[in-house]
């Protein structure tokens, strides 16, 4: 942040005022392994101010590390408040390649995960179905024969 101050300090509007000391910033970034965003939130400043402070203090950015983003560790985690589409997307890491209803394994068909009873939060309440069996199960089309 740049602050306009007059008087004995000889500061002007272009004088840089860091959000914290170099030692505090280094401790949070290197020892506590906090991200710029986490540091900014703790100091109640913008990420841009943290980036500027890192540059002014000549602190070297560490190599980025892959973080665990599964489940509750993900910033977008909604838990029980997840919507219909999000509950279905949980299953997409394994794409079905056969139908549990008609037992087909035709690679030219499209296969879906179909919810059986309406309990979308339960991952065990899904079954692999080809598109025609899935639509028949959901009652979308009544005249599909196979």
- The stretches of 5 or more residues where confidence is low (pLDDT under 50) are 1-6
Rg for CA atoms = 27 Å
Instruction: Give the number of DSSP strands.
Output: 2
CATH class of the largest domain: Mainly Alpha
Mean pLDDT: 83
Helix percentage range: 25-40%
**Class by alpha and beta content:** mainly alpha
**How large a portion of the residues is in β-strands, by DSSP E?**
5-15%
The CATH architecture of the largest domain can be named as Orthogonal Bundle
Strand and helix order = HHHHEEH
- Total domain count: 2
Largest sheet: 2 strands, antiparallel
Global geometry: rod-shaped
Any chance you could write out the topology, listing elements then pairs?
Elements: H1 22-31, H2 36-43, H3 47-56, H4 84-89, E1 111-115, E2 126-130, H5 131-138
Antiparallel strand pairs: 1-2
What characteristics describe this protein?
about 150 residues, mainly alpha, Arc Repressor Mutant, subunit A, 2 domains, two-stranded antiparallel sheet, 5 helices, rod-shaped, disordered N terminus
What does this structure look like?
The protein is mostly helical. It has two domains: 1-60, Arc Repressor Mutant, subunit A, CATH 1.10.10; 83-138, no CATH class. Helices cover 29% and strands 7% of the residues. The protein has helices at residues 22-31, 36-43, 47-56, 84-89, 131-138; strands at 111-115, 126-130. A two-stranded antiparallel ribbon has the order 1-2. Helix 2 (36-43) packs across helix 3 (47-56).
Give a concise summary.
The protein has helices at 22-31, 36-43, 47-56, 84-89, 131-138; strands at residues 111-115, 126-130. The protein has 146 residues and is mainly alpha-helical.
């Amino acid at each position: 942040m740049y602050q306009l101050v007059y008087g004995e300090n000889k500061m002007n509007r272009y004088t840089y005022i860091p959000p914290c000391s170099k030692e505090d910033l280094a401790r949070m970034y290197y020892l506590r392994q906090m991200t710029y965003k986490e540091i900014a939130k703790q100091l109640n400043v913008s990420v841009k101010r943290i980036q500027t402070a890192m540059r002014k203090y000549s602190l070297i950015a560490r190599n980025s590390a892959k973080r665990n983003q599964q489940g509750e560790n993900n910033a977008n985690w909604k838990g029980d408040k997840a919507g219909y589409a999000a509950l279905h997307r949980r299953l997409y890491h394994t794409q079905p390649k056969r139908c549990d209803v008609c037992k087909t394994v035709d690679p030219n068909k499209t296969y879906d995960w179909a919810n059986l009873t309406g309990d979308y939060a339960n991952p065990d309440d899904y079954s692999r179905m080809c598109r025609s069996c899935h639509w028949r199960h959901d009652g979308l089309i009544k005249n599909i024969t196979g």
